[in-house]
């Protein structure tokens, strides 16, 4: 099998390549290993460059850049969120990412990240739940059965042993599709008629809706003691899923407060409302779940370090495979300072190739 290319030729992972890589590794194994990469990077959180993602908002959605670096590698993701896209047969979220060498500035990898973002979001959710969910949790409600739902279910099965699922979506066809996709993967599945029905008996409640608005997917009376809430859907200003009263009685855990206070559920709260950074829990600097009655909330908006971890994991998995394409991305003149000369040589070569034989 070929070694990864270097310098001017950059490996590119297409959607087809990514699907084959995931399937060759196995979805549960991929999620489990990816979660371990994310957890390892959270343990060294302090070495990373950290800024809130750079967002361009419109009436219809948002386009964002998410950069970070650990001083050796640099990564960024381009991602959009446009809920209306489903009406024209398009994805709500699409993405691609780049991983580069800090020493030279040369890209090392370009990858699709629509599928990879779904995987890293689910892996992060389940990784956080290892520290925040009640002991022996085995039942999860998933409210919002769109593109993220199956990944969430499989990640929680792989990392926490979740076997019972209670599904609800305002679109019954979405719930039917989700249940069908998960049918033979070891779950006991209940399709529910309301959010209230879905949360009955659930130890973990995942909300993963897509509408770009402040919504009330969960009300305070729906959340009993000891529940862990995995709030995935809120990811931009003016878009939330939980009633404010839930936040008042939950211990809230976040990725990066300057970003989450703008985009997450806690945008409903004062700027000094107490939160715990998840990396501190993972590093042993702060407690996670403290008792069986505690309501924990992972106010997840997604952060660049998670995408960095995902790109790092995928690059490590590419060695010894042919699951990438060689992309001629970077100019590579014989003399690095003679970029114009490279154009002249190309002109001469083209002229020669056009001469009749």
UniProtKB/TrEMBL annotation:
Keyword NAD appears in the UniProt entry: yes
Pfam families xref list: OCD_Mu_crystall
Record bears the keyword DNA-binding: no
Keywords: NAD
Matching PANTHER family: KETIMINE REDUCTASE MU-CRYSTALLIN
Family, similarity comment: Belongs to the ornithine cyclodeaminase/mu-crystallin family.
Name the record gives this protein: Ornithine cyclodeaminase
Organism of provenance: Neorhizobium phenanthreniclasticum
């Amino acid at each position: 099998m070929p070694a990864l290319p270097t310098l001017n030729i950059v490996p590119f992972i297409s959607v087809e390549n990514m699907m084959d890589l995931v399937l060759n590794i196995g979805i549960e194994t991929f999620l489990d290993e990816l979660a371990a990469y994310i957890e390892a990077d959270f343990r060294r959180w302090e070495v990373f460059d950290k800024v809130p993602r750079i967002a361009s908002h419109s009436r219809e959605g948002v386009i964002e850049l998410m950069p970070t670096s650990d001083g050796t590698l640099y990564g960024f993701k381009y991602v959009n969120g446009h809920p209306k896209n489903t009406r024209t047969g398009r994805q709500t979220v699409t993405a691609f990412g780049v991983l580069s060498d800090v020493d030279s500035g040369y890209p090392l990898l370009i990858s699709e990240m629509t599928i990879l973002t779904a995987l890293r979001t689910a892996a992060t959710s389940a990784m956080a739940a290892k520290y925040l969910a009640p002991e022996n949790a085995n039942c999860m409600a998933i409210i919002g059965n769109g593109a993220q739902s199956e990944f969430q279910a499989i990640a929680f099965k792989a990392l926490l042993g979740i076997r019972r699922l209670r599904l609800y979506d305002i679109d019954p066809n979405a719930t039917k599709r989700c249940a069908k996709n998960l049918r033979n993967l070891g779950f006991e599945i209940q399709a529910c008629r309301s959010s209230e029905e879905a949360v009955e008996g659930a130890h973990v409640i995942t909300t993963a809706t897509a509408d770009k608005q402040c919504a009330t997917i969960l009300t305070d009376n729906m959340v009993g003691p000891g529940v862990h809430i995995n709030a995935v859907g809120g990811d931009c200003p003016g878009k939330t899923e939980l009633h404010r009263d839930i936040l008042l009685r939950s211990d809230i855990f976040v990725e990066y407060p300057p970003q989450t206070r703008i985009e997450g559920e806690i945008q409903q709260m004062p700027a000094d409302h107490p939160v715990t950074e998840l990396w501190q829990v993972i590093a042993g600097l702060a407690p996670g779940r403290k008792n069986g009655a505690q309501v924990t909330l992972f106010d997840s908006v997604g952060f660049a370090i998670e995408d960095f971890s995902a790109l790092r994991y995928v690059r490590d998995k590419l060695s010894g495979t042919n699951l990438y394409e060689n992309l001629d991305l970077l100019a590579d003149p014989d003399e690095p300072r003679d970029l114009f000369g490279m154009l002249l040589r190309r002109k001469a070569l083209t002229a020669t190739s056009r001469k009749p034989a």
